[in-house]
Design brief:
Layout (H helix, E strand, L loop, with lengths): L3 H4 L5 E7 L2 H10 L48 E11 L8 E16 L2 E14 L2 E13 L17 E5 L3 H10 L10 H7 L9 H15 L4 E9 L9 E7 L4 E8 L2 E11 L5
Antiparallel strand pairs: 1-3, 2-5, 2-7, 3-4, 4-5, 6-8, 7-10, 8-9, 9-10
Length: about 280
């Protein structure tokens, strides 16, 4: 049962502004090995995650490298944090060099108990406003779990895809993505911490990075599609430097199934909704 003190966080709001800087966009493009868009161009899908990161002094960080809890997000001491998934609705493109306002609301806090112990689920909604109009609405699911051995296998096998792309993650890729998104979570770059404290066999590939590569693969395979909605959830972690696949298949009715994983099974699953008839 969720404690009343934690539930009191429900309904909290926060507003922040950011400039979708061309310089930062160039750094993200280099990290992802893509051509950089120009000022005024559409920001590629999911690149907004590099922005709206409130800087926190070293003294304000927890042992895991995340900002200490208890501000906008509820406290979850002695638990490991995971970005479990998101649901996004794309209303209009964000633009490089635009000034954007993000309105955040904490929608729900819920305690659940599973085979790995107690889990605290936090759902946050972000609305991104550009030129006075909503451009993007996103719900993020954040999970705080008690320290337990991570699940590294036992998921369903990868489906047969209509498109697939092999990704070879490197420590440099993970470090640069952490840097460009101002993500201090030590599981992505600190080998002693991730192996000795959190029990992973190696550096963990960022869930948002996997989602970005997954949606990029869909867009490249279906250039006529206009993405309207995208949802994803993590099933298990991917470990660097093990190669993994991002791929998918069309379902009909303007929907596509996408996934990421390797021979061990699926690691992230998602769905794309689109218009204008994709071509595989």
């Amino acid at each position: 049962m969720t404690s009343p003190s934690v539930q009191s966080w429900i309904g909290r709001t926060e507003t922040s502004q950011d400039h979708l800087s061309l310089n930062l966009v160039k750094r993200l493009a280099a990290t992802l090995s893509e051509p950089a868009p120009a000022s005024g161009d559409e920001l590629p899908l999911l690149w907004h995650w590099a922005f709206f990161q409130e800087p926190v002094d070293e003294a304000g960080l927890g042992a895991d490298g995340h900002p200490a809890r208890g501000g906008f997000l509820p406290p979850a001491d002695n638990r490991n944090r995971m970005w479990a998934g998101s649901r996004l609705e794309f209303l209009q493109p964000l633009r490089v060099d635009a000034q954007v306002t993000r309105h955040s609301t904490l929608l729900n806090v819920e305690e659940k108990h599973g085979r790995t112990g107690s889990l605290l689920f936090v759902t946050v909604q972000h609305e991104y406003v550009q030129d006075g109009q909503r451009a993007l609405v996103e719900e993020q699911d954040i999970v705080y779990r008690e320290p337990t051995p991570p699940k590294l296998s036992g998921t369903e096998a990868l489906p047969q895809g209509e498109w697939q792309h092999l990704v070879q993650p490197t420590p440099t890729l993970l470090f640069r993505y952490s840097a460009v998104t101002f993500n201090g979570h030590r599981i992505h770059y600190d080998w002693p911490y991730v192996t000795e404290t959190e029990g992973y066999p190696g550096l963990v590939v960022h869930g948002p990075l996997i989602a970005t590569l997954n949606l990029r693969a869909f867009v490249q395979a279906n250039p006529q599609a206009q993405v309207r909605r995208f949802s994803f959830r993590g099933v298990r972690p991917l470990i660097c430097p093990d190669a993994f696949e991002v791929g998918g298949r069309l379902l009909g009715g303007g929907k596509a199934q996408v996934w990421a994983g390797n021979a061990t099974g699926q690691a992230q699953v998602g769905e794309v909704e689109f218009t204008q008839g994709a071509q595989a």
